[in-house]
Structures are given as C-alpha cells and as structure tokens.
Write the structure tokens for this entry.
Amino acid sequence: MAIEFQNVRVYGLGESMRRAQHSRLVGDISMEDLGSDNDIRLARRLGNRPIGSGHAQYLVGITVQCDLRAPEYWWMHAGRYHWWQTVSSQSKMYSLAKMDLDDLMGPYIDHVILERLKVIQESYRATESKDVWLTLLASTGLGYERTAAITSNYMQIKNMASQRRRHRLPEWLAFYEWAHTLPMFTELTGLPI
C-alpha cells in the first residue's frame, strides 16, 4: 500500500455551489433546491478557472474529512505544503512498542531492517528499558506508516493535485487519483483524470 484514504466525508458541496452566486447576486440567496443546473453550471465555470485567479474561491467551502495512512517520507514531504489540518494522528512513540511491526511498515522497507526492528521491539517488551525504547524509536525509518485524521477542502486538494500530478512518489500519484473520486471534484476543478 502506498497511501490509503478511509472514512472520507464531504460537506458543503451543494451549499458552496449555491453561495458561489454571491458575487453576482443582489439580495438574499435561497438554500432550496441545492445542486440545481444553474448552481452546477456556475460552479463549473468558476472552478475551471486557473489556480490562483480567485474565481474558484467557493471551493474552500467544500470540506473534506478523512483518515489518511501514508509512510513517514510522504508525511514529511506533504507537511511542507499546509494543505490540511490534522485533527488527530497516530503516535509513533506509542504504536511502535505495542503494535505488530509488519502492519506498521510499508512495502519498501528492507526485510533485514524490519527483522532487526522486531528484535529491538521484543527486547523493549521484555525489559521496558528507556534506552531500548529510544533505540527502537530512532531506528525506525521513513517506511513507517502513520494514520491521521485530516480536514481539507476542494481548493487545497485542487492545488496539491495539480502540483503533484506527475510526481515520482507513487503516493502522490495515488493522491491525484483519489482526488478524482471525490463527488464532482473533476467537474468542479477542471483537472484532467
């Protein structure tokens, strides 16, 4: 597994498409019949404008929440771009000593290294030595997979997907594919599949 999205929820899709009318409307907006043909037509036109043009601002109102599991090397790379808020995340310090290392490590970790980590983990379980625990923590590489609950929005996901569409890490390619599974994401952002 390169990256895994679970428990994905999307909020505010119809409401944000309707509210995209604010820039051209005089008076109040009705929240009845959300997702009408007019809503979709305007949302598509605005959402397909170039990134950074300001026309697709309504995409910020379409909230995405999910549990995301990815290797540490991806989290370190993705964290530089601030495209989500972390609601809660798995603690490496607590999970390493308790969980099955085969379940925590990604497919690219060297088998010899994984076996050595298991020996260190067993030593910690037997002794509960702080030094052994620190050795286990420090020896765990970037192939360790961590899960976090994140909140983002269609605008941020559009930006990240467009920037990482042809990245060499398979996790970014999977991220791009996942973005297109979100309701109406392709139609509203104009990003090619």
